[in-house]
Amino acid sequence: MPEILKDTIGPQKQFHEFLAKGEFKIQRSKVTGEYFFHPRVAFPGTGDRDLEWVEVSGNGVVHSTSCNRRLPEKGGDFNLSIIELDEGPKMMSTVVGIEPDKVEVGDKVKARIVELKGESNIIFDLIKD
Amino acid sequence: MDINKIRAKTAVVGLAETGCGLAPGWNAMELMATAVYDALDDAGLSIKEVDGLFAATAFHSMAAMSLSEYLGIRPKFADGSNIGGSSFLAHILTAAMALDAGLINVAVVAYGSNQRSAGGFKTISEAMPFEAQYDPRMPVSAYALAAKRYMYEFNASREHLAQVAIAAREWALLNPRAYMHGKGPLTTEEILSARPIVDPLGKLDCCLVTDGAAAIVMTRSDKAKDTKNTPIYLLGAAMEHHHRMISEMPNFTSTSAKDSGKRAFEMAGYKCSDMDTVQLYDAFTINTILFLEDLGFCKKGEGKDLINEIIPGGSLPVNTNGGGLSCVHPGMYGLFVTLEALRQLRNSAGDNVGDRKDGGWIENAKISLAHGNGGVLSSQVTNIWGLEETI
């Protein structure tokens, strides 16, 4: 019989399935407790496969940010940022609820699950002081 | 392990470029093959002698195979690895190893593109998982994110970035081959008021979109002495990379050029202050700043203040052809970085490699550094080239 991986899914699909249930989970090493993103079959650089999915706080800080200029008829300007999660890893996302060119490095943000490109994904809202 | 085993064991004996600017009516393969034959003519060698072929483009999934078919040759060793714009500097390292090992005798490294005539920036990159859903405009969005972080960490401004574009243009004004040669100098005001693309980068912070092809011919050093031009010896070469997606870059203001540069200098037995010309892959203004710092020409955070050194007449000749910002950028610029490093040395040795206005050629240049960048500040490859007396 050829091997058929029918009862399991890969970490990318798993990530989005958790999001679809309203859970923002990322992986961490059971051994060191260290988190990483993006989701993988093993811890990058060590090959540690003893991993667990853990729900994260959704809190983060803008590590870098840009305003992508786009014609109004194509949707207009939008924000593209790198968010450093409180748990450590960085991820690409967008900060909404503010002019796309007004986001600043160091701004505190909070994750929100939305549908993007037909899948559940993470965007971030600015935390207002 | 002897890291110096391939030091100066190989040399470039021929080089050429063609269609740098606009080549409507030509396809990428035709341009690339023309550059190969021109480089072989420059070397005084025949296509029949080529037994090692190295190529990458944004038009061919298997460039080395497509090119060897087009040329009608059967390489004993070929490499079409694509690590972005730095591919060719890595091909040079592989070619040196294959030549030194005796697997091949004559290596050609080639690239071709007709992207400008074919409608604009051309990529065969797949959409990145965990990024594509946010619609990044790659590669410029990635470089904008790195630039923004750099500005934050080192109190840099768009004015600082603009100085890189100004310096590149000043060099282009001395180089009749440069695409922007006739366009006059750039001002900070022009750069800051140019159409914003992805803040903080505007149109003039971004490289040109041109057509163009290039090729070089390499042999073992003992054979190089028999060719008709001045051989340029490969003194050092090293590569490193640690990410493919910008969101995975460990430190947004520090690239693997730190490591590729360190090992290339070690192999060559030279240091930054020995470099007579420095050719850096400037796809965006932030690149030149980061690479000057990471390669060790200045401390982290100081690259933004080197305008007076890197302009023509300065103490550190950087991107002396006008760079990707003002000379040529057909999509993957690495072989053009290499060509300029080599041309400066050949001119200094007395070869006729074209005309420049006063100050465009670096007098008594003996060693050149060529640094390639690929992906989104991802793959970094450093080559150090020298005249025979530097061996």
Terminus-to-terminus distance of chain B: 20 Å
Most extensive protein-chain contact, per-chain counts: A-B, 27 and 27 residues
- Approximate shape of chain B: globular
Radius of gyration of chain B: 19 Å
**Major beta sheet summary of chain A:** 6 strands, mixed
The amount of beta strand of chain A, in percent, is: 35-45%
Oligomer status: heterodimer
Q: How many strand units of chain A?
A: 9
Count the strands of chain B? Answer: 11
Derived structural class of chain A: mainly beta
Which regions of chain A contain 5 or more consecutive residues with pLDDT less than 50? none
Lateral arrangement of strands in the main beta sheet of chain B: 3-2-4-7-1-8-11-10-9
The rounded Rg of chain A comes to 17 Å
Question: What best-fitting shape of chain A do the alpha-carbon axes yield?
Answer: globular
Elements of chain A, N to C (H/E): HEEEEEEEEE
Which percent range describes the beta-strand content of chain B?
A: 15-25%
Question: Tags for this entry?
Answer:
heterodimer; A: 129 residues; mainly beta; 6-stranded mixed beta sheet; 1 helix; 9 strands; B: 391 residues; alpha/beta; two-stranded antiparallel ribbon; 12 helices; 11 strands; 32% helix; globular
Tell me what the structure shows:
The complex is a heterodimer of chains A (129) and B (391). In chain A, 8% of the residues lie in helices and 41% in strands. Chain A contains 1 helix and 9 strands, in the order αβββββββββ. Chain A has one helix at residues 11-20; strands spanning 25-29, 35-36, 51-55, 59-68, 78-85, 90-93, 95-96, 108-116, 119-126. A 6-stranded mixed beta sheet of chain A has the order 6-5-4-8-9-7. A 3-stranded antiparallel beta sheet of chain A has the order 2-1-3. The termini of chain A are far apart. With 391 residues, chain B is of the alpha/beta class. In chain B, 32% of the residues lie in helices and 18% in strands. A 9-stranded mixed beta sheet of chain B has the order 3-2-4-7-1-8-11-10-9, with helices on both faces. A two-stranded antiparallel ribbon of chain B has the order 5-6. In chain B, helix 5 packs across helix 9. Chain B is globular. The mean pLDDT of chain B is 97. The chains are: A mainly beta (129), B alpha/beta (391). The interface between A and B is medium-sized, with 27 and 27 residues.
